[in-house]
Write the C-alpha coordinates for this entry.
Amino acid sequence: MMTIAAATAMALFRLHKGDRAGINRKPDMESVCLICGSAHVAPDSGNPRKLVCRNCGFAFFRYACPACAQVVDSRDPSNPLCPACRGRKCACGGCDCNTL
Ligand SMILES: [Zn+2]
Ligand SMILES: [Zn+2]
Ligand SMILES: [Zn+2]
Protein backbone atom coordinates (compact mmCIF):
# COMPACT_ATOMS: atom_id res chain seq x y z
CA MET A 1 0.00 0.00 0.00
CA MET A 2 1.59 3.26 -1.03
CA THR A 3 1.00 6.61 0.61
CA ILE A 4 0.31 9.62 -1.59
CA ALA A 5 -0.03 13.29 -0.79
CA ALA A 6 -3.46 14.76 -0.13
CA ALA A 7 -3.04 17.23 -3.02
CA THR A 8 -2.15 14.39 -5.39
CA ALA A 9 -5.17 12.42 -4.23
CA MET A 10 -7.44 15.42 -4.77
CA ALA A 11 -6.09 16.00 -8.30
CA LEU A 12 -6.66 12.32 -9.18
CA PHE A 13 -10.11 12.47 -7.61
CA ARG A 14 -11.09 15.43 -9.83
CA LEU A 15 -9.68 13.69 -12.89
CA HIS A 16 -11.39 10.34 -12.36
CA LYS A 17 -14.55 10.98 -10.38
CA GLY A 18 -16.64 11.17 -13.57
CA ASP A 19 -14.42 9.04 -15.78
CA ARG A 20 -13.36 5.84 -14.09
CA ALA A 21 -12.38 3.77 -17.11
CA GLY A 22 -8.73 2.81 -16.82
CA ILE A 23 -8.22 3.52 -13.12
CA ASN A 24 -7.28 -0.14 -12.69
CA ARG A 25 -4.10 0.64 -14.66
CA LYS A 26 -3.12 3.58 -12.43
CA PRO A 27 -1.25 2.39 -9.30
CA ASP A 28 -1.95 5.63 -7.38
CA MET A 29 -5.69 5.00 -7.61
CA GLU A 30 -5.49 2.31 -4.93
CA SER A 31 -4.89 5.16 -2.46
CA VAL A 32 -7.61 7.56 -3.65
CA CYS A 33 -11.24 7.45 -2.51
CA LEU A 34 -13.49 8.34 -5.45
CA ILE A 35 -16.34 9.33 -3.13
CA CYS A 36 -14.60 11.98 -1.00
CA GLY A 37 -11.13 12.43 -2.54
CA SER A 38 -9.28 11.35 0.58
CA ALA A 39 -5.92 9.56 0.42
CA HIS A 40 -6.67 7.78 3.69
CA VAL A 41 -7.45 4.44 2.07
CA ALA A 42 -6.30 1.33 3.93
CA PRO A 43 -6.66 -2.43 3.47
CA ASP A 44 -9.58 -4.09 5.23
CA SER A 45 -8.41 -6.37 8.04
CA GLY A 46 -10.77 -9.20 7.13
CA ASN A 47 -10.54 -9.23 3.32
CA PRO A 48 -7.22 -8.86 1.47
CA ARG A 49 -9.04 -7.72 -1.70
CA LYS A 50 -10.94 -4.97 0.04
CA LEU A 51 -9.84 -1.37 0.62
CA VAL A 52 -11.67 1.04 2.89
CA CYS A 53 -11.62 4.85 2.98
CA ARG A 54 -10.87 5.86 6.57
CA ASN A 55 -12.43 9.27 5.94
CA CYS A 56 -15.91 8.44 4.58
CA GLY A 57 -16.08 4.66 5.05
CA PHE A 58 -16.52 3.80 1.37
CA ALA A 59 -15.21 0.33 0.54
CA PHE A 60 -14.09 -1.03 -2.81
CA PHE A 61 -12.26 -4.02 -4.17
CA ARG A 62 -8.92 -3.92 -5.89
CA TYR A 63 -6.81 -7.02 -6.44
CA ALA A 64 -4.84 -9.01 -8.99
CA CYS A 65 -6.86 -10.98 -11.55
CA PRO A 66 -6.65 -14.70 -10.66
CA ALA A 67 -6.04 -15.51 -14.33
CA CYS A 68 -3.50 -12.94 -15.55
CA ALA A 69 -2.52 -10.85 -12.48
CA GLN A 70 -3.58 -7.51 -14.01
CA VAL A 71 -5.23 -5.20 -11.48
CA VAL A 72 -9.01 -5.48 -11.19
CA ASP A 73 -10.82 -2.52 -9.57
CA SER A 74 -14.51 -2.68 -8.62
CA ARG A 75 -14.87 1.06 -9.39
CA ASP A 76 -13.64 0.68 -12.96
CA PRO A 77 -16.42 0.14 -15.56
CA SER A 78 -14.04 -2.08 -17.55
CA ASN A 79 -14.22 -4.58 -14.64
CA PRO A 80 -17.94 -5.48 -14.50
CA LEU A 81 -19.44 -7.68 -11.80
CA CYS A 82 -19.55 -11.40 -12.58
CA PRO A 83 -23.07 -12.60 -11.65
CA ALA A 84 -21.79 -16.12 -10.96
CA CYS A 85 -18.95 -15.55 -8.48
CA ARG A 86 -19.78 -11.92 -7.50
CA GLY A 87 -16.19 -11.04 -8.28
CA ARG A 88 -15.08 -8.63 -10.99
CA LYS A 89 -14.29 -9.59 -14.53
CA CYS A 90 -10.84 -8.71 -15.82
CA ALA A 91 -10.25 -7.45 -19.38
CA CYS A 92 -8.82 -10.92 -20.10
CA GLY A 93 -12.19 -12.49 -19.20
CA GLY A 94 -10.91 -14.07 -16.01
CA CYS A 95 -12.67 -14.02 -12.64
CA ASP A 96 -12.96 -16.39 -9.69
CA CYS A 97 -15.15 -18.86 -11.61
CA ASN A 98 -13.09 -18.62 -14.80
CA THR A 99 -9.39 -18.45 -14.08
CA LEU A 100 -8.71 -19.60 -17.68
ZN1 LIG B 1 -13.79 8.52 1.12
ZN1 LIG C 1 -7.04 -11.10 -16.17
ZN1 LIG D 1 -17.04 -15.26 -12.07
Q: What stands out?
A: Residues 33, 35-36, 38, 53, 55-56, 58 surround zinc ion (ligand 1) (CB under 6 Å). Strands lie at 41-43, 50-53, 59-64, 71-73. The first helix runs from residue 6 to 16. The radius of gyration is 13 Å.
